[in-house]
Amino acid sequence: MDLDLALRIEEPTPLMEESSPNKKRNFMKRDHLNCMNLVIIKSGISEAFRGSVSEWVTNAKEFLVENEKCFVSIPIIDQEVYPEPQQDNAKEPPIQNKSLEAIIIVVLSSLFHCIQENPAVRVSTLIDHLTMAVRSQAIMLKERHLALNPSTSDRRKSHFDKKKKSKDFSFGVLLVEFLVNRELISFSKELNFNDFYVVKKKGKFYLPINYYAICNFDLSILPIKLNLPMVCKPMAWASSSENPSSLSDMRGGYLSMPIGYFYQHRYQLLSSRDFFHFHIKFETDYTILSGIMNELQSHAFEINKDVLTFINQNYDQLVKSGLLMPKFLASLNVSKSIDLLRMSYVEDPSLMKVCNYQNLVKEFMKRIQRARYETFIINLVSAYEGYRFYLPSFLDFHGRIYRSGILHFHERDLARSLIVFSNTPSDNFQLDSDEKKDNVYMVLSSAATFHYKKFISYDDPHQWYLDQKSLINSSDESLIHFAIAAREPYQFISKVLCIEGGKTDHMKIPITQGASASAYQLMSFFLLDKEVAKQTNLIPASYDHQKINDIYTFFLEELKVYLHNKLDTNLFKVVVPRLTRKLIKVLFMPLIYGKTLKSMAGDIYNHYITNHRDGTQSSNLLSRWESALVALHMNNFFQERFPGIVNLMELIMLVGYLPPWANPYSIVHLYTQQYRTI
């Protein structure tokens, strides 16, 4: 069959309309043999490592070259590793075996920890991180070598000037093999939770199946690479130069500043690592911004002892109610646990009637990771109990302010409930009168009630709390019973404990409120759109100042009327009764940032999938074509109903296409996806 023809003969030029029949026949023959070669070559590579070889390579000969780069045999751990061939007899320091062991620990601790949503990581991700870490270490060693040996710098400079391509070794593949051989990690296909599909030509698609890596040891022995709260005041944000040009030039926050890739972004005011895409420059005096950030991070916090004591005293009851996961889940061996779960599922037919195995494994993994997170937070809070601590602040490329670490008010419900302010209120805010005490009581009770459920008026929450007060405070079990049904159970518990005789000063309790469609609030502000401003609660409604509006409910009601005139009767009866606020938020919240029709159609298609009781999916209520049609009508509704927002975002996108040197209004930055940001 001349299978080696595709390897011996160079790839011919593309066919043209005037190409001869012989040329077309030879082209098709070689293309067919090339595809067969690729299938044969890929079948000889372990499935776990196929993702490490570039999938975009469609030429069999080029694929062999790329494969050789990734799977070249080099010594790992047992010997010293030279990052690249030696040049000009310049003896550069190799990467020692202890350095490789340290790199493995650093990478594993950054990927396998309690903050991640899943305790397993894709093998391709693990390979990429290991390879990147080895290369970063090699670059640092070369820079140190050149600094200590100036005589070799000229030779190395001339070598780099030639711009010769060096072999791109995939160190990550070999390090993963090292971990597998020593049974430190294992691979699994059962953890493939991909719900999205990859579209091919002619409408065909497939679900990608990925290999996942699981650690076979207790993850608690791994160090966690996190930004912890500081027990001393953070360094003030400042610049080494007199006139810094952008946020990337500001340094501060944590006191020590180690160098290297792993820590560089931790000590910069701008959190993004890719500074070449996000240039946020100072238009005015930079001290105005740095002053605000320094003031924010100078405020001290402390642990809410009332909540921590409540959790420790009622731990078993909280586990029984489902508000906490059992501690033993945090230290399970995931690989062995999955094997036991599979055997139990096969041996117990009653389980098959309740759910399928894939959903069971998915829920099991979520609970393991949740137990790890809760255990870590409680241990961390216990360590900081009695201390005043500080949270360094920084900005993302949107210009939004965040706090470092995992113990702050942008975190999950449990972490947020365990933090209170530490600063003593000044004399002007002392509760020295009954009127002030009543006002504080009303605010705290309303805040507690909002953590329990949503209300459409600001007057209702306080009255609801007064009506339920006797039941809530009857016992700890009663409070836990109410917390089970709460939107944010631990913050609800925190406010109730403070109100009803807790040791924490009322003036130290933080009052938080989620943003009400902040992107649409900005649009209404820029466009002076009163209707959108009222629906996002930026300004109160003229007819009722106490009413709380919801823009997504507003979208939902108007969209139903719009679709009534656009869809045929049968499709309307399927689509409209099943529209929910949750779906509308999924569709319209990212739409303002540039959500595509294809993505909207996928969300609609997944929303209209019906499930059996055993967890298996039945046939879809909507076809993909019908989902695309509904998505088109929803997009048209938004464009017709809010043309000002659409035009403003299009204008921002056009300005953003200009390069930075030609764009005096450098406020828009386009990254890997077509998402428009201000």
Q: Quick summary of this structure?
A:
With 678 residues, the protein is mainly alpha-helical. It has 27 helices and 13 strands.
Structural commentary:
- This protein has helices spanning 5-8, 21-43, 60-70, 97-111, 123-148, 153-161, 171-181, 261-264, 286-297, 305-313, 315-321, 334-347, 349-354, 357-384, 413-417, 434-452, 460-472, 476-484, 489-499, 518-527, 530-535, 551-564, 569-575, 581-588, 597-607, 624-641, 643-656; strands at residues 121-122, 185-188, 198-199, 205-206, 212-215, 235-238, 251-253, 301-303, 393-395, 401-403, 419-421, 609-611, 617-620.
- The two termini are 59 Å apart.
- With 678 residues, it is mostly helical.
- Strand 3 (198-199) and strand 4 form a beta hairpin.
- Residues 71-90, 155-166, 259-265 and 663-678 have low confidence and may be disordered.
- The strands form 6 sheets. Strands 1-5-2 form a 3-stranded antiparallel β-sheet.
- The chain has 5 domains: 5-70, no CATH class; 97-221, no CATH class; 302-387, no CATH class; 437-508, no CATH class; 520-662, no CATH class.
Instruction: Determine the fraction of residues in helical runs and give it as a percent range.
Output: 40-55%
How large a portion of the residues is in β-strands, by DSSP E?
Answer: 5-15%
Question: Could you report the average pLDDT, rounded to the nearest whole number?
Answer: 77
Main sheet: strands, sense, barrel: 3 strands, antiparallel
The count of β-strands is: 13
Q: From the alpha-carbon coordinates, what is the Rg to the nearest angstrom?
A: 30 Å
What structural class results from the helix and strand content?
A: mainly alpha
The DSSP helix count reads 27
Number of domains: 5
**Poorly predicted runs:** 71-90, 155-166, 259-265, 663-678
Instruction: Characterize the overall form.
Output: globular
Distance between the termini: 59 Å
